[in-house]
Amino acid sequence: MKVNIENFDRVHFIGIGGISMSGLAHIMLNAGHIVTGSDIKDSYIIQKLKDEGAIINIPHNASNVDGANLVVYTAAVKEDNPEMIRARELNIPTIDRATLLGEIMKKYKYGIGVAGSHGKTTTTSLISVLLEEMNYDPTVLVGGEVDVIGGNVRVGKSDYFVTEACEYTDSFLKFYPYIAVILNVDSDHLDYFKNIDNIKQSFTQFANLVPKDGFVVACGDDSNTMSVLKNVDRNIITFGIDSNCTWNAKNIKFDEKGFPSFDVYYNGVFIQNFELSIVGKHNIYNALATLAVCHLLGVDIKSTPSIIKKFKGTHRRFEFKGTLDGAIIIDDYAHHPTEIKATLSSALNYPHNRIICIFQPHTYSRTYSLLQDFATSFDNADITIITDIYAAREKDTGIVHAKDLAKLIRDRGNETYYIKEFTDIVDYLRSIIKSGDLVITIGAGDVYEVGNMLLNFNKKAAIGA
């Protein structure tokens, strides 16, 4: 359903506390719309929106919709939701989150959609920070918390709009990108897509949304991405490390904290040396994509190294949480085998004695369809703890259990434990942690609470002392 959002003065968001939904609500508030919303539980994101003037109720209730001219919902909201039923009864137009985002994006001359199976949040954030620092005044919607822009959304007054473009349920096919970024293409969201060929087909459609005078910025080192490009008739800019691309990183080095430095070449000509304050080889790719995009928009790349170096990443992306008895606590959002391997590979370059990994699988369908790949993802961890699967939008059908994954990892000869309760994980960690250990909580659910609980216990012990 296509809508002119200017025609709706009162917009209701079902699931307003989500990272993307809250950002859209902020943009609509800023544009002068009355915003109402609901969610299943309160959060600091919801409190922030209330402070900005949104009217939000907990939990979902049919009466919350009364008075709305337009209802926006997320993929997690089903037709039996009481607010959806009420909207249908009142003949209130309903659209999904992606449709609203696309309609907002359409209003900007230069829309940048950052797609890819991995790295979207970091790359979107880095592009946004660089454009802001270079006075491009972009509007930004990102799937994570970025300190530099004060959260997950920034409303600018220019023609530039930067957002993540998620492939799940083909959401990104409702967007209007002038520049489409494809970081990588991998098997994921197999509860929606049939297979990798189906996924590549969607990315091809996304790339072809770009107008003839626009650009596709794509990773030349990723075979699936290059397969996608075979069916794309647009201006293509590539970036990579191993292959000959428009933008290349060479002479890569890692310092004692695991932060990379590298020389950047554009069409074979040396541009500048860059240093990152975020770990991992994968972030070199994210930085190259950022430079390629910003160069297309007219940014003087030679003036950006200091901005790039200042970027400390987004929350929940190899985020330093604190220390406990000389051990370092890190949290990371990785929830796909490729991402976990990248995170633990980054950890190898970080000072440590042992790597202790606590992983919370995300959704039953992903865990089941990629079970064997997950099993091979933890080889760089000295100790792995698996906790229960975070259901998210799904119900437990019994098709897979976290114990199944723990067994497969253990069968590879890796020290692995299944522990159900977070409190028991904390107790176990407190019994084994030594100075110099690197403890990493990994997953897209609420596994970060394990790190918080560890650090809070440390604070309480200090107070008691």
From TrEMBL:
Domain Mur ligase N-terminal catalytic stretches: 11-108
Mur ligase central domain sequence ranges: 114-294
GO BP: cell division; cell wall organization; peptidoglycan biosynthetic process; regulation of cell shape
Ranges where the Mur ligase C-terminal domain occurs: 316-445
Keyword DNA damage carried by entry: no
Subcellular location field: Cytoplasm
Gene Ontology MF annotations: ATP binding; UDP-N-acetylmuramate-L-alanine ligase activity
GO (cellular component) term, any one: cytoplasm
Record pathway: Cell wall biogenesis; peptidoglycan biosynthesis
Name of this chain's protein: UDP-N-acetylmuramate--L-alanine ligase
